[in-house]
Amino acid sequence: MDPMEQLLAERACERLVLDFVQRLDLGEPASVANLFTEDGTWEWPEGERFVKGRAALRDYFGARPADRLSRRLMSNVLTTVTSPTTATATSYFTTYRIDGHRGGMVPAGPPVQIGHYEDTFHRVDGTWLLGSRVLFLAFAGPTPRQ
After folding, report:
1. pTM over 0.70
2. Calculated CA dihedral for residues 7, 11, 12, 14, nearest 10 degrees
């Protein structure tokens, strides 16, 4: 793979990492399913959650409470292109979240989660998509209600 192709692949995968959290926080959560391959998976091993396929991903992420306010901070995105059609990444995240939001600014509190994602990517018909996303939490607590 030439250096420019590798750079473009890395950037496309990093964009998926950021697009995922932006859709959860500021967009339509169910639409994250469109960032995955048809048989893509999202997994949280310690939370005993495993979701496979776009329809199931759409249902899972679309079931988030409508009154949930969340903001995720992403950092340390390290993407490794393993072939012209596959890549992996690890990224760190911090989540601030409350349920029962009725509008306006919320007093800052501690984050609800801090952890990292491990992702695989596949290039399908020229487009990079998430093949799998696995969530690992180092710190976690309950989501408060406003």
Report:
1. yes
2. 140
